[in-house]
Amino acid sequence: MEESQEALNNIENGISNYNKGLGNNKEINGSKTPQNLSASIVRKKSDPILVSNVRFQMLRNILNNLHEVVLGTKLAVLFPAIPLAILADFYHFGRPWIFALSLLGLTPLAERVSFLTEQIAYFTGPTVGGLLNATCGNATEMIIAFFALRQNKIHVVKYSLLGSILSNLLLVLGTSLLFGGLANLKKEQRYDRKQADVNSLLLLLGLLCHMLPLMFRYASGLGNPFAIDTLQLSRTSSIFMLIAYVAYIFFQLKTHRQLFESQEEDEDEDEDGEKAVIGFWSAFSWLVGMTIIIALLSEYVVGTIEAASNSWGISVNFISIILLPIVGNAAEHAGSIIFALKNKLDISLGVALGSASQISMFVVPLSVIVAWIMGIQMDLDFSLLETGSLAFTIIITAFTLQDGTSHYMKGVILFLCYVVIAACFFVDKIPMNETIVLGNLGTVNEPSSGILFA
Amino acid sequence: MASNPDQPWLLENGTLKGLTKETGRTGRTAHNMSSSSLRKKSDRTLVSKVPCALLRQFLANLQEVLLGTKLAVLFPAIPLAIAAQCFGFARPWVFALSLIGLMPLAERVSFLTEQIAYYTGPTVGGLLNATCGNATELIIAIFALAQHKVAVVKYSLLGSILSNLLLVLGTSLFCGGIANMKKEQKYDRRQADVNSLMLLLALLCHLLPMLFTFAAAGSSTGMGVDSTLHLSRASSTVMLLAYAAYIVFQLWTHRELFEAQEEADDDDVVEETPDIGFWSGIVWLVGMTAVIALLSEYVVGTIEEAADSWGLSVSFISIILLPIVGNAAEHAGAIIFAFKNKLDITLGVALGSATQIAMFVVPLCVIIAWIMGINMDLNFSVIETGSLALSILAVAFTLQDGSSHYLKGLVLLLCYIIIAACFFVNKSPLHQSNILNPGLQTSTGAVRGA
Fold first, then answer.
1. Which long-range contacts (CB under 8 A, 24 or more apart) does B213-218 make?
2. A32 with A262: CB under 8 angstroms?
3. How far is CA A44 from CA A70, A71, A75, in A?
4. pLDDT for A116-135, tens place per residue?
5. Residues with Cβ < 8 Å from A177, sequence gap 6 or more?
6. Mind telling me how many Å the CA of B42 is from chain A's nearest CA?
7. Shortest CB distance from B219 goes to which of A395, A427, A443?
8. Are A451 and B203 within 8 A, CB to CB?
9. Which residue of A252, A363, A371, B127 has the fewest C-beta atoms within 10 A of its own C-beta?
10. Residue in A410, A430, A454 closest to B443 by CB
11. B281 or B409, which is more confident?
């Protein structure tokens, strides 16, 4: 049964060029980036016995495919939220319900998209796989940002992306280091700091690009006449951030690949076999389908965020910065913790830092460029409190990771930093209405209050 | 003639707990070891001439406790301060004498804590040190809260952190570097890293309320103060949690990171047995704490008059003068250990003290103020928070490579002098801020009530 299935897959999809790479162990390993490895943890091997009872070969294949894709994850229990969310929208249930159900539905979808990307990477080879991961690794965040742009909710874009960076750097990393440290109390926990260093540098560049428009706004004092300059500065910075990201991809996938190899000395039984479990075109069509559903749910989320915020009594800021990223990152988060428990810190760091770098240096400038094309004025000026939190986060993370060892206290501190920042945004009930009217200058800027430079 | 001066204590106080060399050693935290360098062995020959045995014991105890330190010359300031207060001398005199009197008291309290630690074992000793190591600062802060001088609380605690990070560390590294010019000076950077991380978390908890107040100042609603207060109280709880985790880390799971270096035993090191009994230690501790409380009350009560009379601002006295006085004993000890090239102990003293104040005393004051119904938040205004941020970053950066030389000390020391100069010229009137709970500071330096 097993090999005929494989033969059938090969016949259906054309001979994959996967066999070419089989001789070179390094190449195979290279296709499993840290993100793929971590997501693979939350998968379970699908059980083909159930399917083999069905008579027709074709039907069996389709069901097997379905089984593998839809039920191949522990998060599949959340899948029913998707039809419920669509129903809630059609039958006009309370808007907060639509919001909550859409959020819940997004969690397994994000994980499945990562799985499908990995499957496609088996067929396309490791480099293209790495590229795919580099662009689509945070597809959920990108799609949410795009829909928020379309509905002209610039602050939701800014704050959800900022929240993703904060969540990756503090929450995911903190909990991973904490649990890893507690589980490995007696062992020494080491990781290769060169990977952490490169990511820290990229994040610092991103931070500079955020701080300059902010300081520009404060230095100019009066708001409106200089708003255009901030916009031009932001757009220029975005282009350079994308250039930096391209260089980073080149560094990561071509010239200094060995820095980013994930640790694979002991193979667990958890990992998938070296071959893909579904065919290339089926993976591709599943990917397209799931992306469409993600788009739909994202549209619901962005549309109902204010209603949910009013109904639950928390600010839109808090929902964008704290809730949305926790949901979007849930699968990566779990994977990162599990690898830290096994004392494979390089993979945890690869997941958390890589994701943060990707959002900061790819998704954010891409959003600015897309907004430019759409004629929407989005700049890189995330207001004072948010930029301050970002600056501090990057500094403390860079400092924490710069010595190459870890213990649970580091995780405790990073996690508590996240709690404090979350508390700050929780009590932050500064009304956002004025900012929408004033055209996205961040928080209200009344120059007469003479905050800094009277 | 006294046969063995230690024996009467053993008889009087019951047997000591089994003191093997190892438990005795680990009971000596860096803090305790630094203060011990200021002590001198008491000279029993004088006491041994007294005929009556009980009187002899009593006098030996007195001599050990009162005269066992080089700072004992300052003890006469205490009765002078009390006399000055009772007879209505000029208030600045009361202030100055109380300050001088606090110095030896702080050192003696640390000595007594160490003595008690001999009896209770190393872990409880470490815990005692972790809570009472900065008893003087804590008592001053509580009295200032009781008199509703929230600004004095904030600035004195901030000044303690700055003094520990820049002044104590700077002078120690500088003197140690000059004395050991040809040798390589190394220390274990993991201890410094953990302390730097804790200080960074404390910085975050101060930075966010300040930024929040800034951001809220531009909005039309007046919700800034309330939200800042809630945020500060929540942050204080988080800080205390972090400190508890730090104590578990330091005293239990990763104890070996914090062991004091003891390879070369000098003749300075006190031997493993305690010098006074357990109960006499407790009695002396309670008594000295009461005297510290009295002097602190004088200090806090007369600070404004002293400021007016000497032409300095209250913020300068709070940030610079008070901590120098409160820290004098630790300071001297840290320098002495740096001379001997035992930098781990120096760092343990300076960084440990700074971490303790930032992550324990400050949030504890916020919680106590909450209980007392006083609105104290974590928003130390712009200049103070900026100085704190730069100090922490400078120290974290300086200590991150595990070796030291005199230039590092010099730079840190000069940072402290610059910050002191900044507060010296900052003649902001703090009187109204004591009532109105200080908020923002504009660039001209005038404090504006929130």
1. B213/B379, B213/B439, B213/B440, B213/B450, B214/A384, B214/A451, B214/B440, B215/A383, B215/A384, B215/A385, B215/A428, B215/A430, B215/A443, B216/A430, B217/A449, B217/A451, B217/B440, B218/A443, B218/A444, B218/A445, B218/A446, B218/A449, B218/A451
2. yes
3. 11, 9, 10
4. 887 887 787 777 777 777 77
5. A340, A345, A348, A406, A407, A408, A410, A411, A414
6. 42
7. A443
8. no
9. B127
10. A454
11. B409
Whether residue B320 has pLDDT greater than 80:
yes
How far is it, in rounded angstroms, from Cα A113 to Cα B448? 54
Q: Decide: A347 and A173 in contact? Cβ < 8 Å.
A: no
Residues in contact with B304: Cβ distance below 8 Å, sequence separation at least 6, in sequence order: B314, B431
pLDDT score of B368: 95
What is the share, in percent, of chain B residues with pLDDT greater than 70?
79
Q: A189: which strand partners?
A: A406
CB atoms within 10 A of CB B266: 9
Please answer yes or no on whether A454 and B396 come within 8 Å at the CB atom: no
Residues A110, A325 contacting (CB under 8 angstroms): no
CA–CA gap between residue B169 and residue A372 (Å, rounded)? 52
Q: What letter would DSSP give residue A432?
A: S
Conformation bin of residue B437: beta by default, left when phi > 0, alpha when psi is -120 to 50:
left
Average pLDDT over residues A387-409: 93
Contact B218, A447 (CB under 8 A): no
Per-residue pLDDT, A266:
45
| CB-based contact B212 A424, cutoff 8 Å | yes
User: Residue B69: what are its φ and ψ, rounded to 5°?
Assistant: -140, 155
Give the distance from CA A275 to its chain's centroid.
26
Q: Which residue of A has its CA nearest to B202?
A: A417
Beta bridge partners of A43: A73
Dihedral pair phi/psi, residue A46, rounded to 5°: -75, 150
Query: pTM for the full model?
Result: 0.81
Chain A residue with minimal CA distance to B198?
A413
Interface of A with B (CB under 8 A): 185, 383-385, 388-389, 392, 395-396, 399-400, 402-403, 405, 407-410, 412-413, 416-417, 419-421, 423-424, 427-431, 434, 443-446, 449-454
Alpha-carbon torsion, ordered A81, A83, A88, A94, to 10 deg? 10
Among B399, B448, B16, B416, residue whose Cα is nearest residue B185: B399
What the block records as the tokens of B312 is 């300095």
Centroid of chain to Cα A363 = 10
Cβ distance of B201 and A403 shorter than 8 Å = no
Asked whether the beta carbons of A419 and A272 are under 8 A apart, the reply is no
Q: What is the pLDDT of residue A35?
A: 60
* Spatial separation of the C-alpha atoms in residues B151 and B430, rounded to whole Å: 8
- Which residue in A187, A137, A165 sits closest to A341, CA to CA? A187
- Per-residue HEC secondary structure of A285-346 comes to HHHHHHHHHHHHHHHHHHHHHHHHHHHHCCCHHHHHHHHHHHHHCHHHHHHHHHHHHCCCHH
Indicate whether B88 pLDDT > 90: no
Instruction: A60-69: list long-range contacts, CB under 8 Å, 24+ apart.
Output: A61/A5, A61/A8, A64/A5, A65/A278, A65/A279, A65/A282, A68/A277, A68/A278, A69/A112, A69/A115, A69/A116, A69/A278, A69/A286
CB pair distance less than 8 Å for B238 and A423:
yes
User: What pLDDT does A270 receive?
Assistant: 43
Give the gyration radius of chain A's Cα atoms.
23
